[in-house]
Design goal:
The complex is a heterotrimer of chains A (about 625), B (about 260) and C (about 400). Chain A is an all-alpha fold. Helices cover about 70% and strands about 5% of the residues of chain A. Chain A has 26 helices and six strands. In chain A, strands 1-4 form a two-stranded antiparallel ribbon. In chain A, strands 2-3 form a two-stranded antiparallel ribbon. Chain A has a two-stranded antiparallel sheet with strand order 5-6. Chain B has a six-stranded mixed β-sheet, with helices on both faces. In chain B, strands 2-1-4-5 form a four-stranded antiparallel β-sheet, covered by helices on one side. In chain B, strand 1 and strand 2 form a beta hairpin. Chain B has a domain of about 80 residues. Classes of the chains: A mainly alpha (about 625), B alpha/beta (about 260), C alpha/beta (about 400). Chains in contact: A-B, A-C.
Chain lengths: ~625, ~260, ~400
């Protein structure tokens, strides 16, 4: 019996740090609607700074001073980030801020290694809290007791802050209705800044409090960020109590789950999230979101099919691309093929996001299923390459049919997180089902058939499939189905009132996007010759989001440019510098500031406003986005 | 009018929210080609009533029949398929499309081509879309982004969208709100003409009593969720209960000369 | 300039600097050079790869100081793989088709090692794997193009199982990261130990996800099955968390612990004074190795970098030394000749002479087995002894059975 009590307490201690970070994320999201990918980076910075401060300051006061001091310093960094970077892009398309915070995260990961060195750092133990107390023969660490108490204390403090102060009331009002606060005459800028600072402070405090338990290292951010998102969503966006309950729920399920299924941790949080979202689409404590108002910055300049000249320009670009084997080295062709494959992948997500308004955070699932589809057919059934390429994506299609059906019942961030959960389920099946998938050692030896074995021929194949896929997706955008899909995105009320079955339309779009992702995955398997679970991993899903956002989510085909720029740059940087994340992150931050609507979107605005008259009507996809403010 | 077949029959429609009776036992019928106004003070239950007619909300009790078919609780898209067009109190259109495309989407839906993936929508029944836009008076804006239209024009666009369905029944929730007085008259005249030509039944709510008394064949008066009066404009105008409610609100509804009465 | 613009200028500067470095790295082609390609997880795993890089840099310097490879200068072109197999294949492609290297070497993670080894097989390129431990590299997925330097999972398990068999403990529990490396380490260890000691029982196992251990509940769950001994395969930050929770909760008290890799400075040093005492571990006690071969390496390393070597340093150093020896022996850059030269080649290492076995292309490099202890507030390995890899390799018959025929 005492064992179960202690296991429960241990779960509570784990929940405390999760809650601290999650509450910060929830507050930030509630008010600013920013999906703050950098939250994990702030958590990590908190830990690193706390390590440095507690090494220098001695005694009990020094230790706790170091912890709080670190959190305060990181909060200040957060203020700078908010004022310098995020303020410029609040009016950008939805999720664009995700791109900025992703860039920051990349930078921070390399920066901490530059500043603190590559070794894992062992932080000081809390003075007086090194040991454990005996509970009927079971040891309960005293530091755990502190954390167990701290969770509810922070919850209570936040509750008081939000109920008993004018600032808190404003924050709550803003969480419920952003436009209303602007109407109240509140200085919205400072409200946002202070909310961001508080959220970052909580994240950094969560990180700093880990130093007596953890090793401070440069992967802390990614270890926590996804779990924290999951906790926030399970609890219900914007609900602090929900975040607390969800953190406890997840931690306790893990603590007791591993007693029965020792391998459950790897997938547990995602299973819980998937179940919660299917049963309660707004999380445990969330409220159904009020019918979304016009998304800020949503394009009002309608899309147009390409003119004759624009089509000519596209064909010209394709001919130039097809001529690459005459000029480039084999390596250039291999990179070219990889970029082409990612163009399909990004375009498929772009279709879902920009036409359907459905931002998937787990699009890699269908890419990964495509790779495994090919690998199974080629290795187990010995199918020839053409058959594999045609049938492999079917696995992506089937996955999208299954998961999409559940996912389209939700919208907004909940949709995004459910897709993420599904992607993680796919990933963990690939990872765990060693007998079939080879686990993380993957499936090897998926090489192209002789007739496309040379880099040039494979490149042409990839280019051909890409050209066909992008064209098909474009045709789809302007087809009746594409318009019906856009209709469901623009106004659910109106589209239902004119006889459109939104869910079925969105589901179809999901399946189409999943199939094209599967096609890109199928090609990717042959390009690399081997298939691994990371083909369905979070990193790849994030990459695809970044490509779409970089190109411009409000454009018809911005993802094409986004994929080319991002993929080419990242391959080049990884090849030439160990600090590729720092440089790539910096580049993304600059792009976010320079092109607040994505590269193609911003370029289109300039053309529309007559600032680049030369390009008017000469550039594909240039005249689609809204005029600049 | 009584000779025309019954288009819509509503029996004992009721809906309450947490103990508050928003709509209580409302029954009425509407004939093809008839224009019926549903009026009542704010909070009388007009919008809830509307929402239950086209499936936006499910009634707690009661029945809605369209040409003899029970459509109670069917979703809006099913109701549309049976030939019902609707406009909203707060307009709902597709802001990222052009004005013409807004109508074309409705035409696509009417033609049951939603899952067609290869035709070009911008070319889809373009003439028909333009005809409808001309009809409601926004033909000149066909290529403009819908998000740029003035509010009154959005109302007209909504009417065009509803007409794209070749409806048997039009449900119009405050169709003239936000329009100048002359525009209101024009729009309602147009609606009346189309309704008579194509034998469309029209049910509308309206705050502007000039519009109501000029164009309605019959008027239903709703107060606190219940029907308190029903009849021709003249009957309703004379009804003491109605007078009491409206006088209590400080509204004078028989002042036909009044200009610019707002919602 | 406003502070905001200053920060953005900072970003710009970083981008420019990054591109400038990138542009200048491309070196001119020289006839008198032999280029070999090297791939590792530099950005994903700096704590291992930084010392590793120093190791191979030292080796390159020594090789060239001694006249290069049959008179030609040895050049190593090094690429980051971002910790992803797909990126590693891109890098391998670049090395082979663009940089014109004569062989590929390196890699850390098992899946990356396998991806590159399959690439090598497909493109018929010589691949010398450094660190990836999975047995598959030389056994079930082995191929004639791939050789491996470090003692495999099997070999390390065999070394530890030898020691574990001497313990009185009968009730064993295991904790390992939930991926192939952890799974196969546990499986091989269990098999080998059970063979030696049919009397022992496996009473519990824990499989926290790699990099995301929730140490408190894991420690509790292990304690709950009341084992007499524990096999640990955790490493890196997970190990630190596990040890800290285990210490606080008294998990290790009165229990024997056998642990993979924990004696390697990469994983032992971060534990500082919290190093648990008396664990039986494999590792690299650089401070305690008194052989001429190692002394020479240690002095050269410390002189060049003013730092002590980690195990990664030895791997990097010996990787390039092996590559150089193979190239010198082959006196050719043709893949077939390299393979012929590598099979059975003998060469020196900081740990003594090693050879690459012909049957499975596994090197006989061994590891040190010893016990952990705390000395001057630092974790160290004591009572350590070198185990020659040759004595712990799977038998030729087993290789014959498992390894695909070329």
């Amino acid at each position: 019996m005492s064992f179960y009590v202690v296991q429960f307490l241990t779960g509570l201690a784990s929940a405390a740090s999760l809650f601290l970070v999650a509450s910060g994320l929830s507050i930030i999201f509630g008010v600013t609607r920013i999906v703050n990918f950098a939250h994990g980076a702030f958590y990590m910075l908190g830990a690193y700074l706390a390590f440095s401060l507690t090494e220098r300051l001695s005694g009990t006061l020094g230790f706790w001073g170091g912890i709080v001091g670190a959190a305060l310093i990181v909060a200040l960094i957060g203020v700078v980030v908010e004022m310098v970077l995020l303020r410029r892009i609040y009016r950008s398309p939805e999720l664009f801020q995700l791109l900025a915070t992703f860039g920051l995260t990349l930078m921070v990961e390399d920066l901490v290694v530059l500043i603190w060195g590559p070794d894992d750092l062992l932080g000081r133990r809390a003075p007086g809290l090194r040991g454990a107390v005996d509970f009927f023969g079971q040891a309960v660490p005293t530091y755990d007791i502190l954390l167990i108490v701290l969770g509810p204390v922070v919850l209570g403090a936040l509750w008081l802050l939000f109920r008993r102060t004018r600032w808190g009331v404003l924050v709550r009002a803003a969480t419920q209705d952003r436009d209303m606060v602007a109407a109240l005459g509140v200085n919205q800028k400072w409200l946002f800044t202070s909310v961001f600072a508080l959220g970052v402070f909580l994240a950094a405090l969560g990180g700093a409090l880990q130093i007596p338990r953890d090793a401070v290292n440069h992967t802390m951010d990614l270890r926590i960020i996804v779990d924290v998102f999951v906790v926030v969503v399970i609890g219900g966006l914007g609900s602090i109590t929900g975040a607390f309950v969800a953190a406890v729920l997840v931690s306790e399920l893990n603590a007791f789950g591993i007693l029965i299924f020792p391998k459950i941790s790897i997938i547990l949080v995602f299973l819980v999230m998937a179940i919660v979202l299917i049963v309660r689409p707004w999380g445990l404590f969330g409220k159904p979101e009020a019918a979304a108002r016009q998304t800020p910055g949503l394009s009002v300049r309608p899309w147009q099919p390409l003119s004759f000249n624009e089509r000519l320009a596209c064909v010209g670009a394709l001919i130039v691309a097809a001529a690459l084997p005459l000029l480039g080295s084999n390596y250039a062709l291999i990179v070219g093929a990889e970029i082409a494959i990612f163009v399909i992948f990004a375009a498929s997500l772009h279709f879902l996001m920009s036409v359907g308004g459905l931002a998937s955070f787990g699009h890699a699932a269908y890419f990964g299923l495509g790779t495994y589809g090919v690998a199974f057919l080629a290795k187990f059934l010995g199918f020839p390459m053409i058959a594999c390429l045609l049938l492999g994506p079917v696995l992506g299609l089937l996955g999208a049919m299954l998961f999409g059906w559940f996912a389209v019942q939700l919208s907004g961030v909940y949709f995004a997180m459910l897709t993420l959960a599904f992607a993680q389920i796919v990933w963990s099946i690939a990872f765990q089902w060693v007998e079939v998938t080879g686990g993380d050692n993957g499936i090897l030896g998926v090489w192209p058939a002789a007739f496309v074995a040379t880099p040039a021929r494979f490149y042409w194949l990839a280019l051909f499939v890409t050209a066909v896929s992008v064209t098909l997706l474009r045709v789809l955008v302007f087809s009746p189905f594409g318009y019906a899909l856009r209709a469901t995105r623009d106004s659910g009320l109106r589209s239902e009132a004119i006889g459109l079955n939104s869910k079925r339309i969105q589901w179809t779009a999901f399946v189409i996007a999943g199939t094209f992702a599967g096609i890109s995955g199928a090609l990717f398997a042959y390009l690399k010759g081997s298939v691994f679970p990371d083909n369905a991993g979070i990193a790849l899903s994030v990459d695809s989001l970044v490509m779409v956002l970089l190109g411009g989510v409000e454009t018809v085909s911005g993802a094409v440019i986004g994929a080319i720029v991002y993929k080419a740059l990242s391959i080049w940087l990884v090849s030439y510098t160990d600090l590729s994340k720092l440089v790539l992150g910096g580049f993304i931050v600059l792009i976010v500031v320079a092109f607040p609507k994505g590269i193609v979107g911003t370029f289109g605005s300039l053309v529309d406003n007559g600032r680049l008259p030369f390009f008017k009507r000469a550039l594909p996809g240039a005249s689609q986005a809204e005029g600049a403010e | 009018m009584s000779m025309a077949p019954t288009l819509l029959a509503v029996e004992d429609l009721s809906k309450s929210y947490g103990g508050v009776h928003a709509v209580r036992g409302v029954s009425f019928s509407l004939a093809a080609g008839e224009i019926l106004a549903l009026i009542g003070p704010n909070g009388a239950g007009k919008s809830t009533c509307f929402d239950m007619l086209n499936g936006q909300k499910t009634p707690d009790r009661g029945r809605v029949q369209l040409l003899g078919d029970d459509i109670t609780g069917r979703p809006p898209r099913a109701v549309w398929r049976l030939g019902v067009g609707r406009t909203f109190q707060i307009t709902a259109t597709f802001p990222t499309m052009t004005v013409r495309e807004n109508v074309q989407v409705a035409l696509v839906s009417h033609a049951n081509c939603i899952f067609n993936v290869w035709r070009s929508t911008p070319a889809f029944q373009r003439d028909e879309a333009d005809r409808l836009l001309e009809l409601v008076g926004v033909g000149g804006y066909a290529d403009r982004p819908c998000g740029e239209l003035a509010y009154g024009d959005l109302k007209r666009l909504e009417l065009a969208i509803a007409l794209a369905n070749r409806p048997k029944l039009l449900l119009m929730d405050e169709p003239t709100a936000g329009m100048a007085p002359r525009e209101r008259i024009e729009l309602m005249r147009l609606t009346a003409r189309v309704a008579r030509e194509h034998a469309i039944g029209v049910l509308f709510t309206e705050h502007d009593m000039d519009v109501v008394f000029e164009h309605a064949d019959r008027i239903l008066v709703l107060n606190r969720g219940a029907l308190i009066a029903e009849g021709s404009p003249d009957d309703v105008r004379r009804d003491p209960q109605v007078r009491a409610i409206y006088l209590g609100e400080g509204l004078v509804y028989d002042a036909r000369h009044r200009e610019g009465a707002g919602a | 300039m406003r502070p905001g613009n200053l920060l953005l200028s900072g970003c710009l500067a970083v981008v420019m600097a990054g591109m400038a470095t990138a542009a200048t790295t491309t070196s001119a082609l020289a006839q008198s050079e032999i280029k070999i390609g090297e791939i590792n997880s530099y950005s994903a795993l700096p704590s291992f790869t930084e010392p590793y890089r120093k190791g191979w840099q030292l080796a390159v310097e020594e090789v060239n100081a001694a006249g290069g490879i049959n008179g030609k200068k040895l050049v190593v072109i090094s690429k980051d793989d971002n910790g992803k197999p797909a990126d590693a294949v891109t890098a391998a492609n670049e090395l082979v088709s663009s940089d014109g290297v004569v062989m590929i070497s390196g890699t850390f993670f098992s899946n990356i090692g396998l991806a590159v080894s399959d690439f090598a097989k497909q493109k018929k390129v010589f691949f010398l794997a450094g660190e990836p431990l999975t047995d598959a590299v030389t056994m079930s997925k082995g191929n004639r193009y791939t050789f491996r330097l470090r003692p495999s999972n099997y070999m390390q398990a065999a070394m530890l199982a030898d020691e574990a068999a001497k313990l009185p403990a009968k009730r064993w529990a295991t904790v390992a990261p939930n991926y192939e490396y952890g799974q196969s380490a546990v499986a091989v260890f269990k098999e080998l130990l059970s063979k030696k000691r049919p009397d022992i029982q496996w009473v519990g196992e824990q499989w926290p996800p790699q990099g995301k251990i929730d140490a408190g509940p894991v420690v509790q769950a292990l304690a709950a099955v009341n084992p007499e001994a524990i096999l640990n395969v955790e490493f890196g930050p997970d190990l630190v968390k596990f040890v800290r929770e285990g210490n606080t909760r008294g998990l290790f008290k009165g229990k024997s612990v056998v642990s993979f890799l924990t004696g390697e400075p990469e994983y032992l040093d971060p534990l500082k004074d919290e190093t648990p005492e008396g664990w039986i571990v494999t590792g690299y006690p650089w401070y305690d190795i008194k052989t001429a071969d190692h002394d020479k390496f240690l002095k050269a390393y410390q002189a060049k970098f003013n730092d002590y070597p980690r195990l990664g340093s030895v791997v990097g150093y010996e990787l390039i030394k092996s590559a150089a020896a193979i190239l010198a022996k082959a006196n050719s850059t043709e893949t077939d000749k390299l393979i012929a030269a590598a099979e059975g080649i003998k060469l020196g290492s900081p740990f003594g002479e090693i050879t690459f076995r012909k049957s499975d292309h596994q090197a006989t490099l061994g590891a040190f087995v010893g016990k952990t202890a705390v000395k001057d507030g630092k974790g160290v390995m004591v009572d350590s002894a070198y185990r020659d890899g040759a004595n712990f390799m799977p038998s030729e018959a087993e290789v014959e059975k498992v390894r695909p025929k070329d």
